[in-house]
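ok trying again, last paste got cut off:
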Amino acid sequence: MKTANIRNFAIIAHIDHGKSTLADRIMEQTETVSERELSAQLLDSMEVEQAHGVTVKSRSVRNFYHGDDGQEYEYNLIDTPGHVDFSYEVSKSLAASDGAILLVDATQGVQAQTIANLRLAVKHNLTIIPVINKIDSLSADVAATEKQIRALRPEFEDCDILKISAKTGKNVHDVLEAIYQKIPAPTGDPKAPLKALVFDSQYDPYQGIIAEVRMIDGQLTTQQKLKLMSQGETFNAQAVGIFTPNMKPVEKLETGEVGYLVTGLKDVAAVQVGETLTDAANPTAQAFPNFKPAQSMVYAGLYPKDDTSYEALKQAISKLALNDSAFHYTPEQSEALDAGFRCGFLGIFHLQIIQERLRDEYHVEVLTTAPNATYHVYLKSPDPKQEYLTITNPAKFPDFSKIDYVTESYVKAVITTPESYLGAVMKLCDQHFGEMVDLDNQQDLVTLTYKLPVSEIAYNFFNSLKSITHGYATLDTEFLDYELVDVVKIQIQINYAAVDALDIIVPRQNADKIAHKLVEKLKYTVPRRLYPMPVQAMVENKSIARVDVPPLRKNAAVNGEKRSISKKQQLLRRQSLNKRQAVKSDIKLPQSVFDAVLNLNEDD
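nice, full thing came through this time. structure:
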């Protein structure tokens, strides 16, 4: 295919605006898939995507379209997620594209993630085609939606805005025509040395790492000796191909095309997103600037559950990290849960998706500790070689007597919401120690910029935001800096044994309230035994809250009657033994115990 007839584009939209449905119609009308193969949300092939009805992982597919001008065009569609937790996937897809279709639901209008994804597209200097979807819906307000879109960008004021129904296919042909008419063809030199961008990757147990590439210059063939410029790794190409959307081998990939490369490499750290691929014998002169790595917003511990071995979890996590470049992990050791991993996520929904993918794709069951933010702890007698300690695991938080002061990670949170919910959103941000930075009106939408501590948005902030705005607001975060905070660590003891996996770090002024709520929840989630077990919340070596987990059966020693002296003595002996054996507690905690910590704010 001539480079002039190639178009690389993405579809960007707010969640549930019909992006995956439009992708289905494009594949259907270009006859990329047969009627027998076609199914709803064909590109959302993962179980978690089908279960939640959202796109989690970006995917690409090659379509061939015969235009009304009589020419054949190669359309490389690079699918993108719509949920705020997967904006990094959107950014990767846009880096490999030359244009984007901005899809807006006529029944809901421009929403927050519409604007956030539009900003990403503008940042990548892409040509943007605005499209209104669901025009056949009874609740559609096409005129109002068109007015909102025209107000987004100066270039939208006089442009043609396409109006379609992705569900029925109405006017989708107009979108196909607009793609080759408005989106520019790739630029590149077919005779120059090979230069390709690795914008995604996945792991296959038989073929090793499969890199998804966007060709910039030259061509890529099977058995060609290749080099990864930042890593310096060299290897022979095992196979090259395209997505149709299934993997289809081809003889070569040429300038401007999008496809895949089977590297044969088994080291999951060998191929990084944003890597520059070139010919080992005749390399390109200049590599791409490295992708800005995804900034983890929350951290949580993942530990093997039941019969899952540590090695099985380690292999599953390493392969998953290759498939999801926004997911980070490091090994850690817990006294209560043994060996596991401290993992970084973009948000709570991202954490949930990782849990489900480990279970569904790798058959690994995990225990997940409560998420937390990152802290910098400055000690009274610091190590000359280390200015501060970086704490992502509350269990590693130093003793209070050694701490001089603590700083916490803060983010700039950009919240776009309909004007009618402004008061409720501002109240929510104030409750989470937010500091307003800016407020901007754009027709019926208001954009609020707040400075927020990460610990305050790590739990259910986004869910609360969706609840009070009925799903019409979205959150876009960007890391700012670390600021001074007054926090303490709540340590949990169960039956006098410290359970480090339940440790949490909270603002000092909230410690008493949170401690009492936590022990009350643990009273009903900690597995019961034949005798009562105390659950205590300790702050700075003092117990500030305590409950007793009731025994499995009535105990005569604690029923308020004085006649059972022997039972009373037996209970006292048991408590004494428990205290002596606390350091080697054998209590097995189910996931519901850790969920109690995660859901502390649900009743607020």
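cool. Residues 298-368 form a domain with the Alpha-Beta Plaits fold (CATH 3.30.70.870). The chain has five domains: 3-182, 195-279, 298-368, 375-485, 488-598.
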